[in-house]
Design brief:
49% of the residues lie in helices and 10% in strands. It is built from 23 helices and 13 strands. Strands 1-2-4-3-5-8-6-7 form an 8-stranded mixed sheet, with helices on both faces. The chain has a 3-stranded mixed sheet with strand order 10-12-11, covered by helices on one side. A two-stranded antiparallel ribbon has the order 9-13. Helix 4 links the parallel strand 6 and strand 7. Helix 9 runs antiparallel to helix 10. The protein is elongated and about 90 Å long.
Length: 624
């Protein structure tokens, strides 16, 4: 030990080697600056000598996202110790795993052709080198092949050999080594600024290519060959990722978005509208906001997503950051025209094709039943207490499978119908529905929305329970599909979903409440009360575009199944359809675990039969 009690460099390396030999993870600062990180013992290490500059570095970004890396400052007093450390690491891992390779990453100089007034993008020219070792040469060739398959800014990269006069880091000659020089194409021409999107895409692509090349080294070691090269990626959530995740969750949990934008007097507003001649716009009342949106935005963008050190997680966090920003913008704009505009940014517009399909559904239903009865007027209705009892029984069923499935079920005066927010199922005290509709709706709310909250809660990061950005479309689609799976997707329910599309389209196109209500009742055969409640949802807070996603989401689920794909990825948490490849990768890497529980309806014979039907291809007309 040194005089101050700190370990000497030799003791530092000895202790580190012992931990790694024992199969433990390591994350430590180096005495002369920098860091070593070992997610788990693997037969390689990615190294980078960091320059004394604050400029962005793709080499630094890729290295710090690698599962095993050593990074240190480019200075003489750091190099000697770092070389000793990497050599000891190579000996330890080679001895325990039967193979080892060092991969050095560095930033290439800015080309002289990079001029401030140039309109052409900087060419992507990488440098790849290798020591005279068979494993190094194989890895270098695999790296070249993987890099050549990248498409970066509509360019195919060029791979140059590393100049012979540039030595690899000082290690024994028999250590297998490769090197990769990364072009600084992300710099703004003539300056030190960067194009963030270009930098992110470059880092993600290079890391992917590097893992592809290193997979061959793992295959040559005593470790099992991974099923997919991405399984080599980082597994453990580092402290920075958990910290960012927690900060995002703190901001998101500071307000309940749907409750904040939904009226609290819908039932009373309907009675006033009905008794007043149905020719005056209803007046809706809202809860006072519990959040200062401007202050929360400042907190939101004070979150340092860059420190996550994992391009995949960084992308998920940034997407969520932007989604929360849009929600806060909508709260700031509540009951103004700006609310509708922000809503369209969040949920998108109704596509022409979807509007045509919705109108066709309504026309078909009207041809079969031109005078539909409101569900609330049917003779076999049940009230909110019966719905709560059935929900309590279904949650108890899930508690037997997952003890943490602790949902809060409550009756409320200030919601319409059924609503799930986080672990809560809220049921309106004004609820009246056919008895046969109770199970299908609870499969939607409990077996999809609540279930994915609790399975997401098991994943280690809160973003999987609160929802990745854009998750709502597929969530509502899965919810409606669950109704279909249990033979509960009635024609009247289809009428409601199709009418919501028509109302949202009219709202986005500038129609007022009364105009949309008349469009539904006069042109599409929707009952007066149903049309009112549909418009109340579409026009809440100034115009919420959300409700078209139910029918669109159902179509997306049907297309997904017809293409031969499984719904299994969606039970891992609240994710968007676009995130399935990411979820698959995170499963391969060990970040995520299989869903702790799956929907109860999947155990039913009728649901399995309906899944088979959907896999064979179904249209909306088939569902009628």
């Amino acid at each position: 030990m040194s005089e101050r009690g700190a370990p000497t460099e030799a003791e530092f390396i000895q202790d580190l080697s012992a931990r790694i030999a024992a199969g433990k993870s390591v994350r430590r600062k180096l005495p002369a600056g920098g860091r070593i990180h070992v997610d788990r013992p693997l037969p390689f290490v990615v190294v980078h000598r960091r320059r004394r500059t604050r400029s962005a570095s793709a080499a630094l970004g890729v290295a710090s996202a690698s599962p095993v890396y050593a990074i240190w400052p480019m200075k003489a007093e750091g190099d000697a110790f770092a070389y000793d450390l990497v050599e000891a690491l190579s000996q330890t891992l080679d001895r325990s795993l039967g193979a080892f390779l060092v991969a050095e990453l560095y930033d290439l100089p800015v080309p002289e052709t990079d001029k401030a007034d140039s309109a052409a993008p900087t060419p992507y020219r990488f440098q790849v080198g290798a020591s005279d070792h068979p494993e190094a040469r194989r890895a270098a060739q695999a790296l070249r092949t993987a890099l050549e398959k990248l498409e970066l800014e509509r360019q195919t990269p060029r791979i140059d050999p590393r100049p012979e006069h540039q030595d690899l880091i000082a290690l024994p000659a028999d250590t297998p080594r490769i090197s990769l020089g990364i072009p600084r194409t992300y710099r703004t021409p003539g300056g030190e600024g960067v194009f963030p999107g270009v930098l992110h895409d470059l880092q993600t692509g290079v890391l992917d290519a590097l893992l592809h090349a290193l997979c061959g080294v793992v295959a040559a070691s005593d470790l099992p060959t991974p099923k997919h090269y991405r399984a080599l990626g980082r597994r453990g959530f580092i402290r920075a990722a958990r910290h960012v995740d927690g900060q995002l969750a703190d901001v998101a949990s500071g307000f309940d978005f749907l409750l904040s934008v939904s009226p609290i007097n819908t039932a009373q507003a309907w009675e006033t509208f009905r008794d007043g001649g149905r020719d005056h716009e209803p007046v809706f009342h809202y809860r006072p906001l519990t959040v200062d949106a401007s202050r929360e935005k400042r907190a939101l963008y004070a979150i340092d997503v860059d420190g996550v050190e994992d391009p995949v997680l960084e992308t998920l966090f940034r997407e969520k950051q932007q989604e929360i920003d849009l929600q806060l913008t909508m709260l700031q704009s509540r009951q103004t025209p700006r609310f509708r505009d922000a809503s369209v940014m969040l949920y998108g517009r109704v596509r022409d094709r979807l509007a045509e399909q919705a109108a066709a559904v309504l026309a078909s239903l009207n041809a079969r039943d031109p005078a539909p009865t409101d569900e609330e007027d049917a003779p076999d209705t049940v009230d909110c207490h019966a719905v709560r009892d059935a929900a309590t029984a279904l949650v108890a069923c899930y508690r037997k499978r997952l003890d943490d499935f602790k949902a809060d079920i409550s009756l409320r005066d200030d919601v319409t119908g059924l609503m799930v927010s986080g672990p809560r199922l809220m049921i309106s005290r004004h609820t009246q529905m056919r008895a046969t509709r109770v199970d299908p709706l609870l499969q939607h709310e409990v077996s999809i929305h609540l279930l994915t909250y609790f399975t997401g809660k098991q994943q280690g990061l809160q973003i999987f329970r609160s929802g990745l950005a854009g998750y709502e479309g597929i969530q509502e689609g899965l919810g409606v599909f669950a109704e279909f799976a249990v033979d509960g997707l009635t024609r009247e329910r289809m009428r409601l979903l199709a009418a919501r599309v028509i109302a949202v389209r009219a709202m986005i196109d500038g129609a007022g409440f009364l105009e949309a209500w008349r469009l539904l009742t006069r042109d599409h055969g929707v009952s007066s009360r149903m049309a009112f409640h549909i418009c109340a949802r579409a026009y809440r807070s100034g115009g919420l575009a959300k409700d078209y996603i139910y029918l669109q989401g159902l179509l997306d689920v049907l297309d997904w199944l017809a293409s031969g794909r499984s719904l299994t990825p969606f039970w891992s948490g609240k994710i968007a359809m676009a995130h399935v490849p990411v979820i698959d990768e995170l499963h391969e890497r060990g970040f995520l675990r299989p869903a702790a529980v799956t929907p109860e309806f999947l155990d039913r014979d009728q649901a399995r039969a309906n899944l088979d039907r959907a896999a064979g291809g179904l249209t909306l007309a088939d569902l009628l």
